């Protein structure tokens, strides 16, 4: 587990340094637990992960309005005063979240996030927690 986290930290740093203006990168489980982070302290990463759990659930609910789709959320982008927020599905039960400044290259960010997910999607998967793990 420690080796996997060290590998993931390196990969998140690679994403952040390859896209100028990236502030924070967080990998989280579908239920909002932080799995890895770059550029944020633990408390900030935990807050982002918890907020993302609600956001991905909301996005999935909206996705069901597209009858030709499968109802799964792939990517959410929110532009706000000061920057952008990206949330991308990244394997079964896992998500990749990024906060970036407002002058980030949005196309480059999306491309690098997709590349990262494609390269390490199986490592980003989060198996469902059992009742024993949840409590």
From TrEMBL:
Key word Transmembrane present: yes
Domain Roadblock/LAMTOR2: 9-100
SMART domains the UniProt entry points to: Robl_LC7
Protein's UniProt keywords contain Transmembrane: yes
Transmembrane feature ranges: 82-100
InterPro entries recorded: Mycobact_SerProt_Inhib_Rv3364c (IPR053141), Roadblock/LAMTOR2_dom (IPR004942)
This protein's UniProt keywords: Membrane, Transmembrane, Transmembrane helix
PANTHER family linked: SERINE PROTEASE INHIBITOR RV3364C
Name of the protein in question: Predicted regulator of Ras-like GTPase activity, Roadblock/LC7/MglB family
Organism of provenance: Actinacidiphila glaucinigra
